[in-house]
Amino acid sequence: MIGGSAVGTETATFLARFGVDVTLVHRGHGLLEREEPRVGELARLYLEEAGVKVRLDARAVRARREDNGSVLELDDGTSVSADVVIFATGRRPRSKDLGFETAGVTLDDRGAVQVDDHCRAADTVWAIGDVTGVMPFTHVAKYQGRIVADAILGRPRPATYVGIPRVVFGDPEIAAAGLTQAQADEQGRSTAFAELDLAESLARPWTYEQEPRGQLGLLTDTDAGILIGAWAVSPLAGEWIHQASLAIRARIPIAALHDQVAQFPSYSEAFQMALENLKYRKETL
To answer: Confidence band (pLDDT; 50, 70, 90) for 89?
Structure first.
């Protein structure tokens, strides 16, 4: 498997769970590099627990056929033998040379169709999905479809991509929403962060797995008093990350989030516990 982003991580996970001997080669320092480094660390931990051999800081420089398989030569002088080589190195729009310019559509250097806040690409032309280069997820394409439908029907509303969840369907699931610490720092925000070990803090993991696992991280803007980022590596994280997604999108005050009453036992209780940690840290600083 070449590539350590979402596609590579997901594919390596399910192949390993089918009993396939998987080696994942990634040129970066960590997996899922668009997320927090801690998320990449946990992703690697669980991949290796599943039997995946993870090779970081390694780039495939050439390949050759050997007997009935393939051999990948890496830039560190080593090689990897395999029956099948899968390239999971991301995706980009393939919209060049299709004559879009005749309809007044503009493409960027990546080949992505340029759209405005209403997903309009030109007069009477709209674009949705991966071709726009905006968060290439199925759920974003569906959202853009609703934006376009409303615009065509005379109910225009701008699209906003704040707080949209990003999920990697690994084992356990990996989910995130909002900003990373690096992005918040770049924006000059004053922040506070808390990480919670779910098995140590909640009852729900013990009712769901024999060997419970999972972490939750929350990032807040201390000046605005709102949640601006969240990530979870846990069973069902793709389901309950939406609580953080809504909070970020609606700019719900931390005080309101802290006052929420979560069902017991549930993974959603983790938000209450993590916010307690944030409160404690703020009071003790």
So the answer is: confident
